[in-house]
Structures are given as structure tokens and as C-alpha cells.
Write a structure and sequence with these properties.
Elements: E1 2-9, H1 15-28, E2 34-40, E3 57-63, H2 66-74, H3 77-86, E4 90-98
Antiparallel strand pairs: 1-3, 1-4, 2-3
Helix pairs in contact: 1-3
Pfam families: Dabb (PF07876)
Protein name: Stress-response A/B barrel domain-containing protein
Domain Stress-response A/B barrel: 1-98
Length: 102
């Protein structure tokens, strides 16, 4: 199960707030039951009608199963801390959760 999260930060954040957001986002990659974690920014790919470069940061987390994802959402201390600290820093967040088709 892949948890894809895209963040649009508030435009008036201080450099310290942006640094806090980045550090807290990166900390989510260290959750021990993840298969893999990735934090990024929009890649400098060619502008095309199907490409969205408008977000500021992305978080991609690969969970072994839905139970791990559900624990992450409801009980994971690192995730709950991230939400508590960083929610004031973003205007918009979009989540795309995907499961394999095989």
C-alpha cells in the first residue's frame, strides 16, 4: 500500500518554519515498520498539460499492509507529532492512497 501526500505550504512562512516542516517530514521516513519512505519537491521535468508542479513537498510512504497504514493514521506517535507541529504550515494537502492490482 502506497501513501502519497502532497503539501502546499503557506506563502508567509519564515525560513525557520520551512526548516521545521522539512525536518518533521523527513522524520516520518524513519518509522521502523515502513517498507520505504521518500520526501521530495517537484522535479524539474518538462511542463506538460498532465504534469502538476504546483505542490511544495511530497511524502511517499510504502506500507507492508493496510494494518500498518491504519496504525500510522490513528496511533503512530511520529505521525501525530507531525500533524500537531506542521498542520499550521500548510494551506492544502492532498492524499492519494494506492493498492496493488495483482
Amino acid at each position: 500500500m502506497i501513501h502519497n501526500v502532497y503539501f502546499w505550504l503557506k506563502k508567509d512562512l519564515s525560513p525557520e518554519q520551512v526548516e521545521t516542516f522539512e525536518n518533521e517530514l523527513i522524520a516520518l521516513k524513519t518509522i521502523d515498520y515502513l517498507e520505504h519512505g521518500f520526501v521530495g519537491k517537484p522535479a524539474p521535468t518538462e511542463e506538460r498539460p498532465v504534469t502538476d508542479h504546483s505542490f511544495d513537498y511530497s511524502l511517499i510512504l510504502h506500507f507492508k499492509n493496510m494494518q500498518d497504514h491504519d496504525f500510522y493514521q490513528k496511533e503512530c506517535p511520529k505521525h501525530l507529532h507531525f500533524v500537531n507541529v506542521c498542520k499550521p504550515f500548510f494551506d492544502r494537502v492532498i492524499v492519494y492512497d494506492t493498492s496493488p492490482i495483482h
